[in-house]
Amino acid sequence: MHRRGDQSQPEIPVHTEPFEDGNALFSISTSTVSRQINKWFAVSAWKWCTNDDDCGICRNPFETCCADCKVPGDDCPLVWGQCNHCYHMHCIIKWLNSQQVAQHCPLCRQDWRFRE
C-alpha cells in the first residue's frame, strides 16, 4: 500500500523474453517493463481549412461530398467567393446556373465572384 505523496513505483512483473519468431518491428525496454510491437496500423484524417463546417447549399459537411459525387476529396473541391462564403464546387455551380437574373451568393445575396 502506498501513501499519498509516495513517489516510488511498484514493480510490475513483465515477461521480457523476445518473441520466438523474431518478427517484431521494434522493442521498447526499460528496467522494469518491456514491450514489443509486432504490427502497426496507421490511421489518418483530413479536413478542409474553412471558416464553416457545412456547405450552405446542400448542408453536407465539407468533409463529405456533395450529392452529385460519390467520394470526397479532390473530385469535389471547395470554392470561395469574394464574400468569403465557401461551398462545394458542384453546389455553387448548380446554384449559379439556376439564377435567371443575376448570380448572387446564396447566404449574403452579394454578386457572386469566385475568389482567386
TrEMBL record:
Domain RING-type: start-end pairs: 66-109
Keywords: Cell cycle, Cell division, Metal-binding, Mitosis, Nucleus, Ubl conjugation pathway, Zinc, Zinc-finger
Pfam families, sorted: zf-ANAPC11
Alphabetized Gene3D superfamilies for the sequence: Zinc/RING finger domain, C3HC4 (zinc finger)
Location in or out of the cell: Nucleus
Principal cellular location given in the protein's record: nucleus
SUPFAM superfamilies in the cross-refs: RING/U-box
Single GO molecular function: cullin family protein binding
Pathway the protein contributes to: Protein modification; protein ubiquitination
GO biological process: anaphase-promoting complex-dependent catabolic process; cell division
One cellular component (GO) term of this entry: anaphase-promoting complex
Subunit structure: The mammalian APC/C is composed at least of 14 distinct subunits ANAPC1, ANAPC2, CDC27/APC3, ANAPC4, ANAPC5, CDC16/APC6, ANAPC7, CDC23/APC8, ANAPC10, ANAPC11, CDC26/APC12, ANAPC13, ANAPC15 and ANAPC16 that assemble into a complex of at least 19 chains with a combined molecular mass of around 1.2 MDa; APC/C interacts with FZR1 and FBXO5. Interacts with the cullin domain of ANAPC2. Interacts with UBE2D2.
Family membership noted in the UniProt record: Belongs to the RING-box family.
Job description of the protein: Together with the cullin protein ANAPC2, constitutes the catalytic component of the anaphase promoting complex/cyclosome (APC/C), a cell cycle-regulated E3 ubiquitin ligase that controls progression through mitosis and the G1 phase of the cell cycle. The APC/C complex acts by mediating ubiquitination and subsequent degradation of target proteins: it mainly mediates the formation of 'Lys-11'-linked polyubiquitin chains and, to a lower extent, the formation of 'Lys-48'- and 'Lys-63'-linked polyubiquitin chains.
Name of this protein: Anaphase-promoting complex subunit 11
Source organism of the structure: Echinostoma caproni
